[in-house]
Design a protein that fits this description.
Blueprint: E1 2-7, E2 10-12, E3 18-26, E4 33-39, E5 46-51, E6 57-59, E7 67-72, E8 77-82, E9 91-98, E10 110-111, E11 115-119
Parallel strand pairs: 2-11
Antiparallel strand pairs: 1-3, 3-8, 4-5, 4-9, 5-6, 7-8, 9-10, 9-11
Length: 121
């Protein structure tokens, strides 16, 4: 089992930045592949960014150039640096992990509880 705990969400003005963190514990060999997802009210969960076991990163077109996913293996922590935030980025953000590569598809086995990001003036 892998436990994932997100933090770092909050209220930010358009154009602002936030950094989300996801601390992993438990059988961390099971989090070879990790990703960030978001779900806005009334919408389906969508992939935002993912990182594979070799450190290669993948992004949804909507966040390319603005968001950066990274992983600190020593700390078992996944990060999402979000810059130039827009109101349409408002959503609950979740991190996910698995031993199987799911790219940006919401099929990962392990999920955190989510952290809310609200972009509003």
């Amino acid at each position: 089992e892998v436990q994932l705990v997100e933090s770092g969400g909050g209220l930010v003005q358009p154009g602002g930045s936030l950094r989300l963190s996801c601390a992993a514990s438990g059988h961390t060999y099971s989090n070879s592949y990790m990703g960030w997802f978001r779900q806005a009210a009334g919408k389906e969960r969508e992939g935002v960014a993912a990182i594979d076991s070799g450190g290669t990163t993948y992004y949804a077109d909507s966040v390319k150039g603005r968001f950066t996913i990274s992983k600190d293996n020593a700390k078992n922590t996944l990060y999402l640096q979000m810059n130039s935030l827009k109101p349409e980025d408002t959503a609950m953000y979740y991190c996910a992990a698995d031993r199987i590569w799911w790219w940006l598809l919401p099929k990962y086995k392990y999920w955190g509880q989510g952290t809310q990001v609200t972009v509003s003036s």
